[in-house]
């Protein structure tokens, strides 16, 4: 199913579905990275209903779904219908580009990454997140250390009865998308505690402790990867 069709059919429940303790953890880290690195004129690729538009003053939101953009209008920011693989902007237009919450998992990531580079000014910043190969299934941190992640390349799931598929990334896959960039920061979430996508159940007291402890673990084993990249040429 085309990405825009999937999100047009699920736009009415998107915000409700992501109003969960799992998504709150993701949003908290996104806010930290945006406040730390985002500057100047920004573009939010795959803006959806516009959550991240509130975090930036000078920003344009882009999404392939008309229904999602209808929801985002309440943010009062400029919006454009379009895809990450073919950004409708001239080169070197933006100081910052956001591409968050698995946008690259559902599009042609290589094309989108090249387009992000094209529209960024030299020295511009890309703040990106993807679902990793470890989001394919839950396994303990210690089992991850003994498992070859190469076989976990896709994940099938359903959203409001609609079938969807994610392309999943190893850390090497993710970083290699942004050749011609300097990596300023790499982070991850849910390396020890299992995320509960599409669930409103909160984390237990013990899981909350583990979520804090996992921040000192190696970052390559998280279910979600976050990268901040700087265009260097």
The largest sheet is: 7 strands, mixed
Which geometry do the CA atoms define?
globular
CATH fold name: Rossmann fold
Element string (H = helix, E = strand)? HHEEHEEHEHEEHEHE
Classified in CATH, the superfamily is Vaccinia Virus protein VP39
**CATH hierarchy class name:** Alpha Beta
Helix content: 25-40%
Widest beta sheet: strand line-up:
3-2-1-4-5-9-8
CATH architecture: 3-Layer(aba) Sandwich
Span between termini: 37 Å
- Rg is 17 Å
Q: Tally the beta strands.
A: 9
What secondary-structure arrangement, pairings included, does this model have?
Elements: H1 3-17, H2 21-37, E1 42-45, E2 59-63, H3 66-72, E3 79-81, E4 94-99, H4 109-119, E5 120-131, H5 141-144, E6 154-159, E7 162-167, H6 171-176, E8 181-189, H7 205-213, E9 224-231
Parallel strand pairs: 1-2, 1-4, 2-3, 4-5
Antiparallel strand pairs: 5-9, 6-7, 8-9
Can you tell me about this structure?
Helix content is 30%, strand content 25%. It has helices spanning 3-17, 21-37, 66-72, 109-119, 141-144, 171-176, 205-213; strands at 42-45, 59-63, 79-81, 94-99, 120-131, 154-159, 162-167, 181-189, 224-231. The chain is of the alpha/beta class and 233 residues long. Strands 3-2-1-4-5-9-8 form a seven-stranded mixed beta sheet. A two-stranded antiparallel sheet has the order 6-7. Helix 1 (3-17) runs parallel beside helix 3 (66-72). The protein has a single domain, classed as Rossmann fold, CATH 3.40.50. The longest helix is centred in the first third of the chain and has 17 residues, at 21-37.
């Amino acid at each position: 199913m085309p990405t825009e069709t999937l999100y047009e059919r699920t736009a009415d429940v998107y915000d409700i579905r992501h109003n969960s303790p799992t998504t709150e953890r993701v949003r908290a880290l996104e806010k930290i990275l945006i406040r730390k690195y985002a500057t100047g004129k920004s573009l939010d690729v795959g803006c959806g209903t516009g959550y991240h538009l509130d975090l930036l003053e000078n920003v344009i939101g882009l999404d392939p779904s008309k229904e999602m953009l209808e929801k985002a209008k309440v943010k009062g920011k400029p919006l454009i219908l379009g895809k990450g693989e073919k950004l409708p902007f001239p080169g070197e237009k933006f100081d910052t580009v956001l591409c968050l919450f698995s946008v690259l998992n559902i599009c042609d990531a290589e094309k989108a990454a090249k387009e992000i580079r094209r529209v960024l000014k030299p020295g511009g910043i890309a703040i990106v997140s993807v679902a990793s190969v470890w989001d394919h299934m839950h396994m303990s941190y210690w089992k991850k250390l003994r498992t070859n992640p190469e076989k976990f390349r896709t994940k099938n799931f359903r959203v409001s009865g609609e079938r969807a598929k994610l392309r999943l990334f190893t850390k090497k896959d993710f970083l290699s998308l942004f050749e011609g960039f300097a990596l300023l920061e790499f982070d991850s979430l849910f390396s020890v505690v299992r995320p509960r996508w599409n669930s409103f159940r909160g984390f237990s007291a013990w899981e909350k402790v583990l979520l804090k402890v996992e921040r000192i673990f190696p970052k390559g084993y998280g279910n979600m990867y976050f990268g901040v990249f700087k265009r260097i040429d």
